[in-house]
Amino acid sequence: MPSISLSLVQTFYQLGRTGSYTAAARELNLSHPSVANHIRRLEHLLGERLVIAERGARRVELTPRGLALYELIRPEFDIMLTRLTRLMESQRPVLRIGMPQGISHDLFPGVVRKFHESRPDVELVVYERDTALAALVRQGSLDIFIAERHFGDPVVTQQLIGRYGLSLVYPRSWGPPPAEADIPEWVRGRPLILHEPGQIIRDMATDFLGRKGAVIEPLISVSSSVSIKRYVGEGLGFSILPSWSAGPEDETIIRVDLPSLTPVPIYFGTAHFLKDSETVRALFNHCQFELSGR
């Protein structure tokens, strides 16, 4: 006999337990056609009818073979589900979060401090990523992400939590700051450090710096604001960074805010099935409080 997928058996178990395709679909978070397809595939593998579904009937009946199979697997499934429930309830809650390294380094510690005052039992696992965040949530590798891009993924819920401005940053040894209108001329011939291709800040920086026809040729491109700031502090070049990346405490860097540039949005994304979770909602509120107005 061909190997039978556990998902097919689980679907059959829920159908036998509930007596309804609709109820089984709701229990399994599947569509009605998906449940029906699972049953047809299981019947094909076993070579026998398991379910009788009258057209228009709200409930289904099991054939004698289906009833025998259901009574065979029911005790094992009940025990397995009980053990899994106890195992999961005994584990410490964990939220897996993806976000750019700059946000993780400069903004998220304040969120963590406030969140753990109210949810000390929840572990936050942070993955510093800039790309493919929505896909990682869809694949089940992440629960939540914070990103500057709205992905428009139907499986992922995204909400705006704030915006931040951009600034020119350069080594203090280069002298006094230029006026914002003079920056496209001021940067000519100076070494440039940018975010890697595909990031929103890079696109905005190249558009701004190239307003007067300058050719944008970065000395180096890296993935995070944290790394760029380090290179600028070492005197290797200038860059465009989030305004919160550099402050008065940075003795080797001068920051020039760029109010003419459109503020960059920050979105909070989560798997759709977690949108009503109280823990996720608490984290969202702390993120919104900490990150809004940046």
Automatic annotation (TrEMBL):
Q: Show the coiled coil region(s).
A: none
Matching InterPro entries, A to Z?
A: LysR_HTH_N, LysR_subst-bd, WH-like_DNA-bd_sf, WH_DNA-bd_sf
Ubl conjugation found in the keyword field: no
Gene3D superfamilies cross-referenced by the UniProt entry: Periplasmic binding protein-like II (3.40.190.10), Winged helix-like DNA-binding domain superfamily/Winged helix DNA-binding domain (1.10.10.10)
Pfam families hit by this protein? HTH_1 (PF00126), LysR_substrate (PF03466)
Location of the HTH lysR-type domain: 4-63
The record's keywords, sorted A to Z, are: DNA-binding, Transcription, Transcription regulation
Signal sequence bounds? none
Q: Name one GO molecular function term.
A: transcription cis-regulatory region binding
Name the family the entry cites.
Belongs to the LysR transcriptional regulatory family.
Identification of the protein by name = Transcriptional regulator, LysR family
Per the UniProt record, the source organism is Sinorhizobium medicae
